[in-house]
Amino acid sequence: MSSPSPLSNESIAPSSPETDPKRGHRRHRLVRSLKRPAQFLSFWVAIALPFVHLPLLAQGLGDPAVTLTFVVLLAVNALALYVGHGYNQR
């Protein structure tokens, strides 16, 4: 058997990141500073991607690789629309 620790549990401060207010504030500032550029990029990607879809549709979706590419680009376009929908709104 081991002997009890000389330190009580109350003397050890919790080390979770939620207890440090500076760390949470830094993370919040980082998210706020990245939000606008991410919305900007997503907005313009959502506008440009349909022009990439057109040649794929003109070629036809008979080839499985072309179909997969089209579906992946469609999913990326939907994600870009979701992320960029609030860009340039006050």
TrEMBL record:
<feature type="compositionally biased region" description="Polar residues">
    <location>
        <begin position="1"/>
        <end position="18"/>
    </location>
</feature>
<feature type="transmembrane region" description="Helical">
    <location>
        <begin position="64"/>
        <end position="84"/>
    </location>
</feature>
<keyword id="KW-0472">Membrane</keyword>
<keyword id="KW-1133">Transmembrane helix</keyword>
<feature type="transmembrane region" description="Helical">
    <location>
        <begin position="38"/>
        <end position="58"/>
    </location>
</feature>
<protein>
    <submittedName>
        <fullName>Uncharacterized protein</fullName>
    </submittedName>
</protein>
<keyword id="KW-0812">Transmembrane</keyword>
<feature type="region of interest" description="Disordered">
    <location>
        <begin position="1"/>
        <end position="29"/>
    </location>
</feature>
<dbReference type="InterPro" id="IPR058341">
    <property type="entry name" value="DUF8028"/>
</dbReference>
<dbReference type="Pfam" id="PF26071">
    <property type="entry name" value="DUF8028"/>
</dbReference>
